Amino acid sequence: MACLPVDSLLRLRLSSRLADEYVSATLKTRFRHLIRPFIDDYDLFDHTLIKLAAVIGSDGALGVLYPAFPMPDHIELFTPFETHTEMVGHLVEVEGYSIEDVLFQEQDCLPESVSCIAWVARGDFTIAVVASSSSSPLWPITAGWNTALFAYVTPNIFEHAYPGLTEESAALFNPERLLAGRRVPPPTFARMAADWVSDHGWLFGVMEDDLPTREACTGDNSALCGAVVRFFGDRHCTRGTLLALDDPFIRHPANQLTRYTAMWWRGGHLCSPQCHSGVLELTPQARTCLRSAVRFD
Predict the structure, then answer these.
(1) What are the structural domain ranges in the chain?
(2) Hey, how many other C-beta atoms are within 10 angstroms of the C-beta on 203?
(3) How confident is the model over 134-185, as pLDDT tens digits?
């Protein structure tokens, strides 16, 4: 069970109450294994993540949900704009981290969804605390350089936007981060992709046609088409809880994570003229929106 990807675990947990308990224990263990090297007061950190509507994303979330992908040597926290300072303060004052660097959107050419990034370090351990440009901690996740990174975990819940592709160790580059007519990855991302390919056997593509695992585009029913409007919580996502049925229910407070989600379309070069009114290329976009304004299937 320790090696099963999250979709297999979710199918297993439906079989019985005992299976639900085992799946919950497996996910909690993975989450703790991710956090433990970086955090001394684990319980207080869990409480702080929930209180501040912060999530763990990128490689860290991928390592929890898909154990074939190794745990990273740093973690990335994503916070709402309003709670970023308090999250950094917790790491500095409670966990003994020092601020190593702070990057800002305008002067450091960060994506529109990222207000700033604070890098904090303690010995060999590094945490990037990413502040959203809005009240949603999920908006910056949509700027990930490939689709596998469109994921997050918290002490209670998790979500992944491209589970089918990721389970096949395949991913598409994010057109928002590409160069030369949205066809060429920047050198940094090209090197990272090469590492994923050589170390873990991943497949990468710029368009769906580049991947042998790709299915025919079905328009609005497709999870991958660059013209389809996606959001965290839609029917293409894998989502669930780390808690078992018998665990005490810990409600996420009515905060930025429960109130807002992130919506996007990948954009870039489309599958065919039929995808979007004859248009062959679409500008990538992502925005914060109220969860109450979108349909959760």
Answers:
(1) 6-293
(2) 18
(3) 999 999 999 999 999 999 999 999 999 999 999 999 999 999 988 877 778 8
